[in-house]
Amino acid sequence: MFREADIRPQGELVFVDEFEVRINRKNMKTMRMRVAPPDGHVEVNVPYWIDVDDVKRFVHDNRDRIRRKQSQMKDSPQVRAETASEEEKRFWKQLVAASAPVLVERWSPVLGVVPGKLAYRNMRSRWGSCQPGTGRICINTRLALYPSECLEYVVVHELCHLREPGHTRQFWNLVESCLPDYRRAYNLLKR
Ligand SMILES: [Zn+2]
Fold this sequence. Notes:
By secondary structure, the protein is α/β, with parallel strands linked by helices. The chain has two domains: 4-75, no CATH class; 84-189, Metalloproteases ("zincins"), catalytic domain (Zincin-like). Helix content is 48%, strand content 19%. It contains eight helices and seven strands, in the order αββββααααβββααα. The strands form two sheets. The protein has a four-stranded mixed β-sheet with strand order 1-2-4-3. Helix 5 (86-111) crosses helix 6 (148-161). It is elongated. The relative contact order is 0.09. Bound molecules: zinc ion. Zinc ion is lined by residues 157, 161, 167.
């Protein structure tokens, strides 16, 4: 004899209170819950044998914790970046395009480099890039959502690549010589 729960495919979807809850059945002994980005849906990994009603009760009992997590998530720059309107995106570009050239002018002579053209793009996977050949530097417009030290760090990082292409020891020493506190920005930008 088997119960209905045993034959369901993985990743069943249920609703508890206002939450969308995805249940993943795994070879494990206890339930594990997380609030998943970017939309804050709830994921619960559960043992194969557990009853759906038990999962629902578990989620319901944790509803305050889930709501807190969801509201933190909504305010995070990562989620704001994913859910932004076209108008907001244009605004970030304006902000970044207004500040980055000033920073480039400040740091280029310090590093003794001559950067090429500056470009701005809304990117998902990188904060900046630098073409060693042309010196063209591209900066992620999402940096508008972070403290200004982050944009400065990315500008300095890319300018340092004009002297040191790889992420070598010398490269990081060079970054640190410009921005002794660069690790703060680095950590804010790390996912
Ligand atoms: Zn780099």
